[in-house]
Structures are given as C-alpha cells and as structure tokens.
Amino acid sequence: MDVFLIIIICVLGLLLMYVNIYLLALYCHPEDGGFGSTLFCKIVVVLGLSLSWCQTLMLTLDVTNEREQQGLDMHLCWIIIYISVFVMLVLLIPLAIFYYESDDEKPICQRISLTIVQEFMVLVFAFLTIFLTYFWLRDALVPVTVQVQDAALQFESSEIDLNIDTFTITEEKQDHIATTIDPITFTIGLMCFLGYFFLILYGGIGMVALPLDLVCSYGTRPKSASQATEKKNRLKRLVAQMIGYAKQLRDMEKDVKCATGWWSRRKQNTKVEKRYQKLVSAVSELEEEFEIFLLELDIGNANPLVYIFKLLLGIVLFIITLAWLLHLLLYVIITVDGIPFSPWLNKLFIQLDIYNVAFLSVFFFGLFTLYLLWCVTKGNLVFSMPWIFKFHPMKINETWMNSFLFNIVLILISSVALCHFSTCVFSQYTRLTTVDLLFGTQIKYLKIFSWAFENKVFEYSLFSWTILAGIIQMIMKCRKPKLLDQIDQKKKNLKGNYEIELKELFLK
Fold it and tell me: What is the rounded CA–CA span in Å between residue 48 and residue 45?
C-alpha cells in the first residue's frame, strides 16, 4: 500500500483524536472537569467521536485497497467498525448516561445496580426492534437485466467458434433476484436509515454555518483595541481626580462640624451629602469603565493573524460547500434519460487516478467526506443551541456530560448514513469497493429502504435543506463575538458625563 497514504491516515487519525479531546475540554462544564467520577463518560465521548471520524478514513482505505489490490479483508474491517458503533449506541453510551444521571448520594452498588437494570431495558428494546423488523423485512430485491441471445454457431471439425460478433440480442427485460440479508448487514442498514434524518438536519445546517461563522468572525473582529492605551491614561487621570474630590469632601465634613448654628450646619451637611452621593455614583461609573477597559485589553492581546486565517479558511470551506452542492446538482438531481448530467467530482477523482497521482484522488475524496462529517458536527453544535427550544444544548464551558453523550449518539449514527451517502454520490469512484458492495447492493435494495434510496429522497432533501438553512443563516446575519457584545452593553449602561457633573459640582 502507498506509504504516503498510510502516513496521511496516521497523521489524520492523531490529529482527529486531538480535536476530539479539545472539543471535550472546550465544551465540558467546569463541575465535570478533571478525572473524577466522569472519567468513564469522557472516555466514551472520545471513543464515540473517534469512531465517527474513523469511518470516513476507512472509506479512503477501502478505495485504495480496491485500486491497488492489496488483499486486505475490508469486509471484516467494516463489520468490526459497525459492530463497534452498535455496541457504543446500545451499550456503552446508555450505560454512561444512566450512571451519570443516577443520584450520587446513593451507595455505589445501588447506583450500579440501577444502571444495569436501565441498560437491560435498553438492550431488550433494541434487540426486540431489530428482531421484529428483521423477521418481516430481511429480504432484498436486487434488480438485474436479463438478455436473451441467439448465436449463429459454425462448426469446423470439433471446434466451436464463439466469436461475440455472432451473437444477436433478441430480448431484454428487467427482473429482480430475491436474496435474504444477514442480521448484521440488516442492522447496519437500520442504523443507516435512521442516521439519514440527522445527517440531513445537521449536515444541511453545518455546510453553511461552518464557513459562514469563520468569515463572520473576521467581519466582526475587534476594532477597539487601539483605544485601550488612551483609556488607560484617561482612567489614571480620573482616579487621581476622584481622590482629589474625596479629599475635598473630607475637608468639607470637617468644616460642617466647626460650623455654628443649626441651620448653617444643616445647609452645609445637605450640600456635603449631595456631593457624596454624586461622588459614589461617579466612582461606580468609573468602575464600569475600568471593566470595559479590561475587556478591551483582552481583545488587544488577540493575534490579528488569527482572524485573517479564519477568513481564508472560511473562503476555502465555502468553495468546498459550493463544490458539494454543485456535485449533488449535476450528478444526482439533473439527469438525462436516467443518466447523470455530469460526473463532476467523480471525474476529477478518476482522472487523478489515471494520471498516476492516485494519492491525490484518495486525499481529495477523504477531504470531501471528512468535511461533510465536520459539517454534521458543526450542525449539531449549532442546532443543539436554542433555536426554538432547548434540547441537550452544547455550549462552551456549559455542557454537562449527559448532553455530550446524547449528542455523540446523534453524530455517531449520522456517520453511518454518511458512509452510505458518500458511496452513492461518488458511485463511479467507489465502484467495486467493499463498502459499495455492502451499501450499494445489499442495503440499498432492502424492502424497507429501497423506495427512499432508489428515488434519491435523502440526496434531494440534503440539497434542499442546505439551501434553505443557508438562506435562514444569511438573514440572521453575523453576530458579534461575545466579548464585544459585553463591551457594547456596558457602554450603553454608562452615562458618560459623570466627569463633567463632578467638576461642575465641586467648583460651585
């Protein structure tokens, strides 16, 4: 196998593992930090994310194995991967959720026993569902074209001339071959079918949200950092003035005590009280302005190159999103007599194979599939926030482990559908691979799924939802970073004229 490809897969695997751990650390609630009672949950989260990314890397490995005839048993590899996904979905993740949500004031044995009982109910439900659906819907009808031919055979001595030119097609008809799918393949198909709904929902949102957020972060980048130095000197001057006013106020209080007559003392005391209240209010305003200064100072420490990098990355990701949409339009949606209008990305990958740069074709194929999974993850983070209602929201430094685990279930099951989706939209490039035979021949023609797959319901849905979600997000416009929102809000709350009021008051 290509050494370059092996190195790329290993590097990507390590990089994605780091990304998984980083996401966990970034979104995890501080109370769930550390390696205490939530250690098992965190391991499950990292394993779940790794399994989702691993499937896309397996696609590139499968393509390379088929092209170079390396002899790897990819069918066994795929079965191991999907059994691992199934175990994660019905065993490890539910166990982690049930144990995490159990009452931590109860004894450990009681918590474990309750978790086992709840997990047993999940397993019964899962296997009962699979058994019933498999018993009734395990048959697949694979379409075939039957050709009846006549041959004008000429015999010369004992030899028969079987020249193909002598054959004539007299009849051609479409038929089906009925076959029974094994339970493991059927379970993979069931996970794939369920995962498509989340792939469409999250993938459509993420394909626009991912590049849009990066570009908007440049458009709303901090621009007030240059004022921080000027404000620092101004705040120093104001603090010195406040101290001077406080000293004047203290001297005035001494004069009140020395004043003769009740009316005179009362008049001066009222004057001092009025100035004291004004000074307290001014000090409070100054403290607010100092907080704004600290926030702007934090912004000033940000590297401006980060925002330029985000802009460039956002533009590149926009191009990839447009390439995805154009590929769906030309290869899936627009057809002429049942034939795709253009192979588009399929042709690009195949041409790279022809020109002896197969590693580039595998690289770009992996890039597009990984990007789609990245979009699914981004869409999950965006949609889990309160658009219409809160549903296990994912927020930075505010995400509890049960919310993490729940969203990992959705991402993991979406990744199964993503593999099928990739083999369908890149069918010319992935032809004869193991995953193509698994998804394109067996699962695709299962009775329960065949109508949706043959009529390209999911491909049409993803294309339409991506366009609609993109329009909605464009209308919502780019939001300012949270830090700039805090600064703007604090500036609105400031009166801004307390310095003038104090001068006028103390000069009277």
Answer: 5
pLDDT for res 387: 44
Percent of the chain with pLDDT over 90: 33
pLDDT of residue 31: 82
Q: Are residues 296 and 326 in the same domain?
A: no
Q: How many CB atoms lie within 10 A of CB 472?
A: 12
Query: Do 496 and 358 belong to one domain?
Result: no
Number of domains in the chain: 3
Residue 153 confidence (pLDDT): 45
242 shares a domain with 209: no
SS3 for 229-245 is HHHHHHHHHHHHHHHHH
Distance CA 7, CA 409 (A): 30
d(CA 52, CA 66): 22
CA distance 86 to 188: 8
Task: Give residue 147's pLDDT.
Answer: 67
**pLDDT score of 490:** 58
- Does 119 share its domain with 169? no
- Residue 143 and residue 53 in one domain: no
Element (H, E) at 174: strand 167-180
Q: Residue 316's pLDDT is what?
A: 96
DSSP symbol at 399: B
Are residue 196 and residue 146 in the same domain, yes or no? no
d(CA 159, CA 239): 112
Would you state the pLDDT for residue 67? 78
Same domain, 216 and 112: yes
Could you tell me if residue 482 is inside a domain? no
Residue 414 and residue 202 in contact, taking contact as beta carbons nearer than 8 Å:
yes
The runs of H, that is alpha helices, within 301-333 are 304-327
Instruction: Write the CB contacts of 268 (distance below 8 Å, at least 6 apart in sequence).
Output: 252, 255, 256, 259
Does residue 14 fall inside a structural domain?
yes
- 312 and 290 in a common domain: no
Question: Cα–Cα distance between 234 and 228 in angstroms, integer?
Answer: 10
DSSP lists the bridge partners of residue 176 as 143
For Cα atoms 177, 182, 185, give the angle at the middle one, nearest 5 degrees: 100
Provide the residue range defining the domain that includes 121. 3-137+185-220+303-477
Residues of the chain with pLDDT under 50: 153-158, 385-390, 507
d(CA 269, CA 273): 6
For residue 43, is it within any domain? yes
